[in-house]
Structures are given as structure tokens and as C-alpha cells.
Amino acid sequence: MKHVGVICEYNPFHQGHAYLLRQLREADTVVCLMSGNFTQRGEAAILPPVARATMAVQAGADLVLELPFPFAAASARYFATAGVRGLAALGVDTLAFGSEGGELAPLRAAADRAPEGDFRKTAVNGVENVGDAAAYFTALGEPLASNDILAVEYLRALRVEQLPLIPLAVRRVGAGYRETVWENSEFASATAIRAALEAGEDVRRLLPPESIDVFADAVAETGLADTRRLGTAMLARLRAFSAESGQTVAKNANIAEAEGGLLQRLIKASFEADDYESLCRVAATKRYTDGRIRRTLLYLLAGVTEEDLAAPLAYLRLLAANEKGRAFLAQTEKTRTVPVVTKQSEIAALGTVAARQRALGQVADGLYAIALDGRLTPHALQTAKPYFFH
Q1: What is the per-residue pLDDT across 158-210, written as a single tens digit (0 to 9) for each?
Q2: pLDDT, tens digit, for every residue of 283-306?
Q3: Is 272 exposed, middle or buried (0-12, 13-18, 19+ CB in 10 A)?
Q4: Phi, psi (rounded to 5 degrees) for 31
Q5: Which of 41, 69, 258, 387 has a CB 3.0–4.6 Å from the CB of 263, allowing a cystine?
Q6: Which residues pair with 305 in a beta bridge?
Q7: β-strand partners of 167
Q8: Residues facing residue 31 across a β-bridge
């Protein structure tokens, strides 16, 4: 374990994340590939990327790079595949991740059974009212926790892509990742911390001590992003499909993660809903899970297609680093197979795929600025400088 990588969201960075990084202290370098403005559920991260990356570096990471939009907001297969590709291209030799049991054998067994292609189309076919996660585990035939879907997808991606990363499963501690109870636990979930913040609670004891000041400063500067602020734009976009032609247009829209009639359902729901949460609630069924609905709504606004998710990573953006992290970047400059950029202008020379990913990233910046209620402009997000820890 020389250079170890972690694929993460840090929304926000908390004690459980710090615990995982402490288990990796023997590594020469800890590289984190982190979601940017939006996370895997299709929702805005509560703080901008540089602030979250800074918290991670102060608590044990050496280098934090951004997993670009739209991969960061994608379902498990796309998210995991893009993440392991990025780490391998950087020259990382070990992939560390949390899991419920902390043992590789059952996860590998599940990964070997993971359906190829789109599991929604293979596992759900012919089954009424089956959600994504339920269909996935039906196909696997393994009694795993839903928290382990990403772990299985990491291992599947390593096998399918034939990448040389050595997997390292670290047993999760504390509350589950969707657990909302936090009063009696030092290791509260990110979900619980976000709920506590929304309720106006003091969450400082749930954060690593070395990260508290960064968190407080960021909240004071930008406030907390809220995806609900995008609800009006989502309703307007959906209602723009006319009642007469909407179904035909929806079938040909090629919006990522909207297959199986979901976009048509969202169009119908938009005439019953009056905000973001009610739109998600009206559209939800056992088959169309909450997370998938939120991802589709985000991709609809941003114009993300299935081809965008299938594209290779064209670049990674530097968010934060200490001296060890900068040394790693210097050491791998001639051997890594994905460019690492610090400025938007550096992307122009990287080709058409990079240009498309930059364009999508700029759209995401514009949407995220709205989610921040105008506390940062899209330009400020695009030109934010990396944090360097000395």
C-alpha cells in the first residue's frame, strides 16, 4: 500500500471519514477523488468542493481531486467505474473503501455475479414495481446491505476494466450512511448531519476537530447549498413539454438515467407538484426510487445524455493538497494518463471530450450557484483556487 486512493463525496466530511483516513496512515500518499458540486443522489453538496476538500486534507488526506460532473452525480455503476478509472490513471496502487462487514470475500463473490450492461434493464425486466436496489440484489443473489452496492461496483469495475488497483475494505463504524439519528453517536452519518444542520442544530462535535474551523468559515461565507432552490427551474423545464407532443419528445430526449418511462412520469408529475420535494414525491414509485428521480431531474436541467456518462474521464481538477500530495503529482506527471488541471483555461487544449465535460461542468456551476442562493457566482466557482496546506 504505497499510494492509496479513496472515492468519496464528503458531504460533509465527518468523523467516520476521518476514521477511514486514519486506517490508511501507513500509505505514502492518500489520494481522494471527490464529488464536486453535486453528489450521487443528484443533489447539491452542502458546501462547495474546495471547502470540503480542505476539510479532508486537514484531517489526513494528502491530495483531493474532483471527480467531474456528470460522473459524480451518477448511479453506482457509472460513479464507481469513473472513480476507479481516475485513480488508476493517476498511478494509485490501492483502492480503499468502507463496507459493512469489512471483508472482501463476500463482496468479491457479489461482484462476480453483478449483471453486465444496465442492471435496470436486465434485472427489472418483467418485474413490476421493483426498485433499483432491490433489482440489483435480486440479480446478485447475495444478502448484502444496500450500503455495499458501491463496494460491489468498485470490485466489478476493477475486474471488467482489468485495472491493477488492490482493493482494501475497511469496516464502517458508527451509524449507517442513511441513518438520521445522531444524538448518541460520535460517528453520525452524513445524512444525519445534514438533517441536523437543516434543523439548526450545532454539529461541531460530529466533525473532526481539525476541520471545524474550515467548516464554520465556509458556512459563514457561502451558506449551505439547497437543491430545493432548483425546483422552479425543474418544473418549468418539465412543463415546457406540451401536452400534445410531450410524450413523443420525452421518448427521444436521451436524458441520462431517464429510461423506462421515467421522464414521461416526471412530465405528468410536474403538473401536480408545486416545488422540488413535491415533484420527487409525486413521481416516486417502488420502481422509480427517490435517488434515481433526483438524478434524472438534475440531468434534465443540465442536458446530460447517456453518451456523456459512457465517455472516458478527460481530466481531473485539483482541489486541495499538502506537500506529500504535491510531491505525488510531481512524481507521476510523466506517467499518469489523465491530466490534472488547476484552471479552466488548461482544458481547452485537451480535445473534444474534455470540452464537452468542461461545458457540462460549467452548467453544473451555474445550477450550483442557484442552489447556494447566489452567495457565489458561477465564475467564482470556476475560478476557485486549490487549497495548499503547508
Answers
A1: 999 999 999 999 998 765 545 555 555 578 889 999 999 999 899 988 999 99
A2: 998 888 899 999 999 999 999 999
A3: exposed
A4: -110, 125
A5: 258
A6: 255
A7: 95
A8: 5, 63
C-alpha cell at 195: 438533517
Cα within 13 Å of Cα(136), Cβ side: 20
The three three-digit cell numbers of residue 63, written as one number: 491530495
Three cell numbers written together for 104: 472482501
Q: Among 196, 234, 230, 233, which Cα is nearest to 215's?
A: 196
Transcribe 230-256 into DSSP letters: GHHHHHHHHHTS-TTTHHHHHHT--BT
Q: What is the C-alpha to C-alpha distance for residues 325 and 316, in angstroms, rounded to an integer?
A: 14
Name the pLDDT band for 149 (thresholds 50, 70, 90): confident
Q: Give the residue among 197, 157, 137 at the shortest CA–CA distance from 12.
A: 197
Q: Which of 152, 17, 10, 16 is nearest to 84 (CA)?
A: 152
Q: Using CA atoms, how far apart are residues 301 and 316, in angstroms rounded to an integer?
A: 23
Amino acid at position 239, single letter: R
How many Cα atoms occupy the beta-carbon half-sphere of 52 within 13 Å?
27
- 303-320 burial: b if 16+ Cβ within 10 Å, else e: bbbbebbebebbbbbbbb
Determine contact, residues 358/365, Cβ cutoff 8 Å.
no
Amino acid at 369: A
Helix (H, G, I), strand (E, B) or coil at 22: helix
Please name the amino acid found at residue 342.
Answer: T
The residue written with cell numbers 427551474 in the block is: 233
